[in-house]
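Replying to the earlier thread about multi-chain prediction with a worked example.

Input:
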Amino acid sequence: MDPECSQLLPALCAVLADPRQPVADDTCLEKLLDWFKTITKAGSSLLLLQENPCLVELLCHVLKPQDLSSRVLSFSLRLAGVFAAQEDCFQYLQGELLPRLFGEPGPLGGAAWTAPSVRSGWIQGLRSLAQHPSALHFLADCGAVDTIFSLQGDSSLFVASAAGQLLVHILGLSMQGLAEGHPSLQAGDWPVCAQKIVGHIEESLHSTAVPQITQALNVLTTTFGHCHDPWTQVLWVRLSPLVGSLLEKDPVPAAHSLVDLLLSVARSPGLSSSSCGLWETLAQTLNHLSPTQAGPLALGILKLQDCPQVLRAQAFVILLQPLACVLKATGQDPGPSDVLDSATGDSLTVDALLSSKAACVGLLCRTLAHLELLQPLPQRPCPWPQEPLLGAAVTLLQLCRGSASPASDVGRHLCALLLGCVRVQRAALDFLGTLSQETGPWKGRVGSFFMSVSGPQELVTEVFAVLLEYLRSPDSSPTVLKKAFQATFRWLLSSPKTPGCCDLEPHALLVLRELLPVLQKRLCSPCWEVRDSGLEFLTQMTRHWGGQAGFRHALLASEVPKLTEQLLRDPESYVRASAVTVMGQLSSQGLHVTPVSPEHPGGQQKSLLVELLHILSTDSEGFPRRAVMQVFTQWLRDHHADVAGDTEQFMARVLQVASQDLDWEVRAQGLELALVFLEQTLGQFHSHCPYAVTPPVAAPAGPLAQALQPLCRVRLFEFAFRALFDCDRPVAQKSCDLLLFLRAKTASSSGSLQESRSGPDVASVEAALQRWQAGDQGQPLGDLEPEVVLAVLRSVDLEGLRGALAEGSDHMEKSPQSLLQDMLATVGVLGENEADCY
Amino acid sequence: MPEIRVTPLGAGQDVGRSCILVSIAGKNVMLDCGMHMGFNDDRRFPDFSYITRNGRLTDFLDCVIISHFHLDHCGALPYFSEMVGYDGPIYMTHPTQAICPILLEDYRKIAVDKKGEANFFTSQMIKDCMKKVVAVHLHQTVQVDDELEIKAYYAGHVLGAAMFQIKVGSESVVYTGDYNMTPDRHLGAAWIDKCRPNLLITESTYATTIRDSKRCRERDFLKKVHEAVERGGKVLIPVFALGRAQELCILLETFWERMNLKAPIYFSTGLTEKANHYYKLFITWTNQKIRKTFVQRNMFEFKHIKAFDRAFADNPGPMVVFATPGMLHAGQSLQIFRKWAGNEKNMVIMPGYCVQGTVGHKILSGQRKLEMEGRQVLEVKMQVEYMSFSAHADAKGIMQLVGQAEPESVLLVHGEAKKMEFLKQKIEQEFRVNCYMPANGETVTLPTSPSIPVGISLGLLKREMAQGLLPDAKKPRLLHGTLIMKDSNFRLVSSEQALKELGLAEHQLRFTCRVHLHDPRKEQETAMRVYSHLKSVLKDHCVQHLPDGSVTVESILIQAAAHSEDPGTKVLLVSWTYQDEELGSYLTSLLKKGLPQASS
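Result:
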């Protein structure tokens, strides 16, 4: 601890111990504790207490009967725990203090215990303290373990959860000594704390009270999840019959926790290989649970790396059951897949699906989400029933729209339940999108779908048909439309490509032709979310197929580019920003066509540049301006024709506007643009031939000065130098990086330049830098000469500045000394503002 | 037993990070999703792991409702929806949806400024999150699904702030968010109808305070600014992008106009246009005066307040500058503060609370020598003033709202434990309702007795009316029929109709009972005695003595038999149909008392 803090600490402890002095800000104590944790991690706690006796005094003081705030009491308990984590310090405090803080005579028996923060502090204190064998004896002796048992059922979620975690920790700690060998099954041979905890778990598993069973299962789940020592195997062997007996009850109690436990055991390498009938238990559980409860277990089983094939098959059948029911109810053949066929007959699932709308929607959404998670995994079941799954997703979407006309009663009932259900629509669209990412044997077959006329091609046609139906429908909500756009893009992306050509396949092009009028309509939607999703979709498509003839032709034949341009003036800034991005991309791809007007004789692209510059200079919102800067940076990188025509003029204009921008991200992107320009300019200077391997030789001064001239002419340096002291740290950091890059590039030519006579000299630039650092703005510097720039680059301590900027803008305010000062300063000045948040 | 459960993950006995989970009739709703300005790590957000352990978030939660755009109510939303993985609906009012991104960007900027982009939501995430929002109008009932509906009420506080009623069937909860029961310069007072919710969850920031008139505070503020400007000083007012800043702008603009003052007023980061835009767009959300004067002149098109340029800070002479961020965390407000701090003629006015770890907090707690980078010390000579302009209901206002809504129970959030305790007692005494104040993580469970509407068939009603008994809401009475539960509907119909509707055959069920009577006479004589007794007692009923010796009263059949073991005792077998259950049990109790002696 530094001396300044040491000096402030006694006063602070005195304030904390004084019940008349309320603590100002509830974050202060948390931060104070963070600081003590850092100190004790780095050094001896004992020494800390000996050097700062005020700390022990504080701990003693809080035990006195007084009206102390529960926050301070909680803090003190946690602090004591942090100190006592080191064994020597534990011994130092053990005599009287620790038993009084954590035992019956302490807050445990007092009125303060009613405050959840005190109970939480008590648990967290013990959690920190329990690090060594002495702590275990202490826990056993002071009866803490029994209290922890009861706190598992605390009214506060935080306390109850922490109590469970603490039991896991204590169990692990007490068994640590046995970790080397194989402990015996006999509980009598186990350490006292472990015996107690395991005994409690056994008792809880025997209980008829569901909360108690849940607590026991949760403790076991965490234990097996975190610790894989041999003793956990012994524990599982001992407890598995009890866990198994839960399955005999109807309904199975605490099913959710039971599933978590079984999966945790199955994931543990030591436990899953042990011979205590885990796979049988899992199979039995799958059978006993309701379809809703069994879903997560089935997914968990299918995600396991090593698991018997029979069990996997059983789990997959369970997972597929709801969708199989949907297919069957709508009179569709689940297909040739055995798995789906065997999944159809479960009446429980049908009952669950039809019992109520909420149950039906819940079960279907969960199933779709589980299958979506499973689909991309390498260990997913093989063969993967792609066709029936696609069929089910499409059917669900049709049921939700009312466009399916099932013949059976169950089908009609399903239709009535799902009609207009946005939740199922969203889940089904997500799943449908995922199904497009098919790899493996199916992928090869997808190609043939487009070309053949039978079976699966129809299915893919149906996929696009249902997607178009959703995109067209006036009833689709904005979130559903967004997902429909995303799914459509994924399906278009997955359509097969002719080798050597990345254009869209003819069928996909047909889809595209149908899609563009829909997109056109959506770009005119009164809902900004829809317009924006449409533009994002267009951006994705242009990025992928902008260079392909088929796509270009279809797009240019539509009204979409024209509408997009109109959206540059949309009332919603998010939409303007998306329109800027699309227009930038369309222009890059030569897809932005407007007739050459007399006002812009330079051609159509000039007018877009002017329009974007106008947005950059005048738009009142940051998002469109940021988007313009991104477009410009991309254009510069790509040597966009318009920019390449007169790059210097372009750069000068853009940098001038960007440097004045009020949005920090626009200024930061201005520096990014400057960096690209700098790289391009100096790149030319360094290697004329991009393929030439040139050894690092000192660059001659003349060409360097020449190379820097364009940078000076566009006033890049004044922008960068000013930005070094920008009030927003990320901008200053970016500028610092840029100048360091430049200095590294030009380092080899140092000393060989002469200062020029015109323009500001080095001294005046340095003076300006000092003024800017002090926060003054002053007049523009005027044209800088390359020689002056290089000299200034050498004289400014850029590394030092970078170090300071890396600290974070609040590093002074968040220092421990500052924290202590703040806490002391607030004493006595707490007034109306103490809880006056916003 | 149906119940409502409420668990605050934030704002339980504290202020900041509002996030309250409500479970009502099987639906789970999250009320607000705020952040805590005082932390820079994970602790700034509510601990969502307590929800994620219930399975997939989108499956567990039916919706998220955001009461208003302040960061302690919406700051964690993009994190929750784009990083934690909630993909369900989010409800807020139109102004809140429009203004939220500005505040979130403001917050993102501060966070990135401090720590860089690490583990923080991006601008794209803010947009994606906003696109999931379903914007609602005031007093519009929105169906989240078939069962869950929500409705927004005006809350004052800030532009677009709303209280929400959450209703499932006949059970309902009202969440106030932050509200203000007195109108201010630009907003009206909160209002709710007598909706009698099962539970009212109300903020309690000023649980023990009766606030002085806002006019006094405004006068004070203007006086201080005026004095500073008159002596040639510069006044810095650090503010958050939108909200209180606009209120203060109106105040200064009007004052400048009235006093014909010339000193410039600047508003940084181009927010005047933005404020203009939003207040114009949502003019119906402002107070009546603004709406009225809007016809002549838009109050938010300021004549005296101009956009700030960084170079202006160096200009000589007095000026007033509104700059962001509001707690002097970083950025422009801090830069101007550093520049002006050394001059005692200047003044900084903090119009809101500042968390520890900011320069704003330091100067408010009276620190005048601030350590800056490189061991430099900044001496604060400028005048430091604190003026609270936060628009929360005071104790009186909270009581007023409870009186308006007439809830069955009240739950306090967004306040300090000690103050809540006081208000809780007051509410319990005055309104005779239970009042709760759970800490974060604590669950309050309220049993409810839902009223389930049951439709009565016309046939059954007609039959009742034929008996001359007209339905009367004030006199509840027993009605016999068959309850049919079908398609989530309950209907009471006559048993005949039920049989017909359900296609069932009738089975007659008779209740039977044995009554032992001490009577040595023969069975027929005992039956005769029973007949005579009942005939004398039940004058309104048809009592018959049948040839086989049994006695009937309506559908009730009584037969006498000898006792198998005791010849001095007779057993009366009494049986009746369910329609005559009342009479049957009455008869049984009558017979159990024995037969009158006189006839023996």
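Residues 508-591 of chain B form a domain with the TATA-Binding Protein fold (CATH 3.30.310).

Feel free to reuse this layout for your own posts.
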